[in-house]
Design goal:
The structure is a homodimer of 323-residue chains. Chain A is mostly helical and 323 residues long. Chain A contains 15 helices and 2 strands. Chain A folds into 2 domains: 141 residues, Orthogonal Bundle (Farnesyl Diphosphate Synthase), CATH 1.10.600; 138 residues, Farnesyl Diphosphate Synthase (Orthogonal Bundle), CATH 1.10.600.10. Chain A has a two-stranded antiparallel sheet with strand order 1-2. In chain A, strand 1 and strand 2 form a beta hairpin. In chain A, helix 1 packs across helix 3 and helix 7 packs antiparallel against helix 8. The longest helix of chain A has 28 residues. The radius of gyration of chain A is 21 Å and the shape is globular. Chains A, B: It comes from Spirosoma profusum. Chains A, B: One of its GO terms (biological process) is isoprenoid biosynthetic process. Chains A, B: Pfam families: polyprenyl_synt (PF00348).
């Protein structure tokens, strides 16, 4: 069973999902944001994890889409909070409609996510929903931490990693754990699935920060240096603020405080500061640590080697991405 | 078992509820809004309904509080949408903190509501959560309809009643139904509980509209005529717009369009128009219809007469309130 096969099954079910009808102002935004696409990474991981332990992976399709709907709910509400104009190149819901509609259609998406998660066998329901609810609360905690960090310049590496763990990685972990829960895997296995997904997720997020500065412009989809231009508090910047001292630190802070600057010059100058204190190597080392932990989690899982290979290969692609 | 006894049990459990700790910006607003009080009407109804069929009503306390947390979540998000400065005489969450914190702490409240509802027996979980999720989506639909009505002057009685049914009454119905579900009552009984609560809820909401105009100033807590001054689209105004014709209708519309006016004069004039087309009698007749339907639902329930009496007496108080 290849990832493409799982993805097709997800897209087929997604195209038939009914979110609700009346009033249209409440449900059109849900259909809209769900139609903007995305890699459907989380539900795909759920199906792969289910397939590790059972041929009947199709029973995981609807609960898996519950995670996808939840993920899109967080994007919808985050976009309001960030006042983001665009999502995947299209107007965000609060721009296309308004803030109130975006708040309320997001609320009903969260309810819809639970509705989809109800489609698991009765004896799995309590653990599936208890772990989902914990995870969902953690995602909100991560988003609040991220907002809190906007006005702080003393964020530590530990705090930053905890923020991305909560905001993005626990849901990747839960996506895999959900597959284990649905397939009836044992607690140890489910813990390895969760931690494996979480560790790969943290590495993935740190790699996002790294590629924005050190990605190959020919392969990287976006403009290299965008985070530097925007003073985005990435792992690299937080480390540079921790690692630099004296005049080098002052130079970094000056660049952060400049309101007018040549973009290329700022990117070159800040990158040069990063280079001087070895930020690239430090970040790569952390990324490799998290990836290694994640693969160790997967290795510890007792399942059909061919099926494990599908998951590991897919995780390997995520890890080795250049864009 | 008197209502006071149930309320004490609810307050005791409420005072011990843990919503979460970190970051405080996420969880302080939840503790704040939950501490503002309120009659705890919905969870009280759940306990009364549970007690109709079992002595072990205490097992319903936590799920009942899930409904209370959900209700307060809707108040929190509605207050953002309505830009309301005050809730129960205290600053609203978005005023005391900000809109983003209000959105996000509301989101985690909805998750917390589900967490509390997970505390039902395993064999009840699916029906409890499926019906809750349906109800929660309907509450959002009602709120969206209410917002849509703000810019419309052609709302019909049918649309208005459907809006209040969804926005407020289905949750009252579900509060009672939840008690039946937890106690293991049969489907017919649960339907009567739900519809009984819903019908009383609609009557209650219409009485709210009525008292704002025709309440006894000595007994009514707020200023009589507040809805008229604010052009609030109540059942009375919608009916008056439907029932008046010619010069009387023009007079009504003129009052609605005036941006400067003497408040008492407007209240007197609009009330006089209501009186001319019998709005008070019409509204009272509708209220009595819904109350009668609700009590007929309760009558159809097969349970210990003394225990049914506690519920009916309490509903009677709600119905006969003067403020």
């Amino acid at each position: 069973m290849s990832p493409t096969y799982f993805i097709d099954a997800l897209q087929n079910e997604l195209s038939q999902l009914q979110y609700g009808q009346h009033p249209p102002e409440l449900y059109d935004p849900i259909r809209y944001i769900m139609s903007l696409g995305g890699k459907r990474l989380r539900p795909l991981l759920t199906l792969m994890a289910t397939y590790l332990f059972t041929d009947d992976w199709q029973k995981a399709i609807r609960p898996a889409l519950g995670i996808e709907v939840f993920h899109n709910f967080t994007l919808l509400h985050d976009d309001i909070m960030d006042k983001a104009p665009l999502r995947r190149g299209e107007p965000t819901v609060h721009e296309k409609w308004n803030d109130n509609i975006a708040i309320l259609s997001g609320d009903v998406m969260l309810v819809n996510a639970y509705k989809l998660l109800l489609h698991v066998e009765a004896d799995k329901l309590k653990s599936v929903l208890a772990r989902f609810s914990e995870t969902a609360a953690e995602v909100c905690e991560g988003q609040q931490m991220d907002m809190n960090f906007e006005t702080r310049w003393d964020v530590t590496e530990e705090e930053y990693v905890e923020m991305i763990r909560l905001k993005t990685s626990v849901l990747v972990g839960y996506a895999l754990e959900l597959g284990g829960l649905i397939a009836g895997a044992d607690d140890d296995t489910n813990r390895h699935l969760y931690e494996g997904g979480m560790n790969i997720g943290i590495g993935f997020q740190l790699k996002d920060d790294l590629l924005d500065v050190y990605g190959d412009p020919a392969k990287f989809g976006k403009q290299v240096g965008g985070d530097i231009i925007a003073n985005k508090k990435t792992f690299l910047l937080i480390e540079a603020l921790e690692q630099t001292t004296g005049s080098l630190k002052n130079e970094l802070i000056e660049w952060l405080q400049k309101s007018e600057f040549d973009r290329d010059e700022k990117v070159r100058a800040v990158t040069a500061i990063y280079d001087k204190v070895g930020i690239r190597q430090l970040t790569e080392s952390r990324i490799n640590d998290y990836f290694a932990r994640g693969f160790a989690n997967f290795d510890a899982i007792d399942a059909d080697p061919n099926r494990k290979n599908v998951l590991s290969q897919f995780a390997r692609q995520l890890v080795e991405r250049e864009s």
